[in-house]
Amino acid sequence: MNFSPTPNMIAEKDGPIGRLTFNKPHKHNATSTDMWEAIPVILDEFEKDPAIRVVVVTGAGDKAFVSGADISEFEKARNTPEQVAYYDKIGELANKRLNRCSKPTIARIRGYCIGGGLAVSLLCDIRIASENSKFGVPAARLGLGYRASGLKILTDLVGPSHAKEIFFTARHFSAQEAFGMGLITRMVPDAELDSYVDNYCKLIGENAPLTMHAAKRVVEELTRLDGKTVGFIANNPIQKGGALDVDACNKVVSFLVLCDSFNIPLVFLVDVPGFLIGL
């Protein structure tokens, strides 16, 4: 059953999988205001349902994942400074909500994954693409700006040189090129995309959700640290003051949430259960 607040998005529960689909295939799933508004609503429902273990983000049809913004709505929905400010605000909120989803997210990519569509895929934890997919950011060719947050994620994934190449050339990159530079996680034959993604979801769904959530948050913190060590998490810290004993995964998650609330980054140094956390 589709519970999306707009027909331009499809939200479905399929066993342990939550499926979020950009549903505008006649426009290559170009994004519009109502789609951005729907994303937090859909993710809220997926997150509060313990049966959902993984979220798959994809585009309807076989032509595109998401092709970018729907420019046909600009005159009506982005015609005043107030409308532009609202569009930017709701877009940023949706992006942050997807990026901070507590459950593992997979971008299932077939066809064009361009501009804002590429940005959406980068917000997911894993990107699995068919070998006929195309990737690119045409911002320089169109004279458009690009969110700094999106540039940061892109640079973290592919490195400064590839990030600059993607922006400077504004060309389309093949799935083979995207895989080679680390832009996508897996590349599979087109006919195998659905089964491959479903098998990945099955693998993830069989694992402990709290452990995955804790690992996801720690990886995010490591990325945010950008090489600056201001704290640590270790199994046996030696002569470190202020250690906090954490004896269960749910306490680790709670501690990470607390640190995030106060913008306190952490370094993860442990690979076994039974943590000691110190700052």
What's the layout of helices and strands?
Elements: E1 9-14, E2 17-22, H1 33-48, E3 54-59, E4 64-66, H2 74-77, H3 81-99, E5 105-109, E6 112-114, H4 116-122, E7 126-130, E8 134-136, H5 139-142, H6 148-158, H7 160-169, E9 173-174, H8 175-180, E10 186-188, H9 193-205, H10 209-225, E11 232-234, E12 244-246, H11 249-261, E13 275-278
Parallel strand pairs: 2-3, 3-5, 4-6, 5-7, 6-8, 7-10
Antiparallel strand pairs: 1-2, 8-9, 11-13, 12-13
Summarize the structure.
With 279 residues, this protein is an alpha/beta fold.
Contiguous uncertain segments of 5+ residues: 227-248, 267-279
Mean pLDDT: 84
What is the 3D shape?
globular
How do the strands of the widest beta sheet line up side by side?
Answer: 1-2-3-5-7-10
Please count the beta strands (DSSP E, at least 2 residues each): 13
Strand content is 15-25%
Helical/strand content category: alpha/beta
Provide a count of the helices.
Answer: 11
What would you report as the Rg, rounded to the nearest angstrom? 20 Å
Could you characterize the architecture of this molecule?
By secondary structure, this protein is α/β, with parallel strands linked by helices. It is built from eleven helices and 13 strands. The strands form three sheets. The chain has a six-stranded mixed sheet, with helices on both faces.
